[in-house]
């Protein structure tokens, strides 16, 4: 396999820089479409050799970048589905490398958890809440923050809104 491969447990990702036809000569004639399709074919051959199966229905293609020619790719004769967003290790990412839906989702989960804490404890005092908040709410807000770290003020305000609601 020529393209970079990322492996984690039973999950694998193959990625390649795709050069459009008009920029092909500027990049030493390399075209990522053929390289990526060849790598997918070689991965399928390897899996067949070792009596493993890829569930092609779960294999997806995400095109990144505005100059991407958005080619179709196959694996084992079946076309790979094209997706615009995907959840990977609990983080929702889209084809623009934005985390808007992910941040809104975790803020909603954290607000629901705050509501459950308020409903679930009839005698909720400050001491009990100070024990519950770091265990039940903060992990929701901090999971994989290194990946989706909010840099836009609107996302920072959403996340801080959870803490304001809690206090």
TrEMBL record:
Superkingdom field: Eukaryota
Record protein name field: Reverse transcriptase
Species this chain originates from: Meganyctiphanes norvegica
């Amino acid at each position: 396999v020529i393209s970079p491969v990322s492996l984690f447990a039973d999950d694998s990702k193959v990625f390649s820089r795709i050069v459009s036809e008009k920029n092909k000569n500027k990049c030493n004639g390399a075209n990522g479409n053929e390289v990526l399709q060849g790598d997918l074919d070689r991965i399928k051959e390897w899996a067949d050799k070792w009596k493993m199966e890829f569930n092609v229905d779960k294999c997806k293609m995400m095109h990144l970048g505005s100059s991407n020619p958005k080619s179709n790719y196959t694996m084992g004769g079946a076309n790979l589905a094209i997706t615009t967003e995907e959840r990977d290790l609990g983080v929702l990412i889209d084809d623009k490398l934005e985390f808007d839906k992910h941040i809104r989702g975790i803020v909603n989960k954290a607000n629901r958890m705050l509501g459950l804490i308020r409903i679930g404890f009839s005698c909720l005092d400050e001491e009990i809440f100070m024990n519950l908040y770091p265990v039940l709410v903060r992990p929701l807000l901090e999971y994989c923050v290194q990946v989706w770290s909010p840099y836009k003020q609107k996302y920072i305000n959403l996340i801080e809104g959870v803490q304001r609601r809690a206090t």
